[in-house]
Amino acid sequence: LAFETAGRGVRVNATAPGGTEAPPRRIPRNSAAATEQEQQWYSQIVEQTKDSSLMKRYGSIDEQVGAILFLASDDASYITGVTLPVGGGDLG
User: Fold this and answer.
1) What would the 3-class secondary structure string for 33-52 be?
2) 31 band by pLDDT with thresholds 50, 70 and 90
3) Which of 21, 33, 66, 90 is the most buried (most CB within 10 A)?
4) Whether the Cβ atoms of residue 75 and residue 41 lie closer than 8 Å to each other
């Protein structure tokens, strides 16, 4: 898409967010409460995500927004066709 739009002055970029603290969904995916097994699985995923990050924490929504606003700003006027990792140095 960046190749197709660059000649018209349109920049195309994306972010690749890592683990991010977020409020609960306003509309749950389903009405069933999470089982104890599901809660344990989720806790393990959270810890794995933190452990695989160089910063050893989840990011905030504000940090994700900051990266998006940067890419949309004039400060990024010479950046197009990139995906910016916003994952605290996620090592995968």
Assistant:
1) CCCHHHHHHHHHHHHHHHHC
2) confident
3) 90
4) no
Return the residue matching tokens 């699985």: 41
Name the burial class of residue 18, with classes exposed (0-12), middle (13-18) and buried (19+) by CB atoms within 10 angstroms of its CB: buried
From CA 19, how far away is CA 50, in angstroms rounded?
A: 8
What is the percentage of the chain residues whose pLDDT exceeds 90?
A: 73
Backbone angles phi, psi at 47, to 5 degrees: -65, -40
Apex 53 CA angle, 51 and 54, nearest 5: 110
Map tokens 């104890």 to a residue.
36
3-state helix, strand, coil in the chain (%, to 5): 40, 15, 45
Domains, the chain, ordered by start? 2-22+35-86 (3.40.50.720)
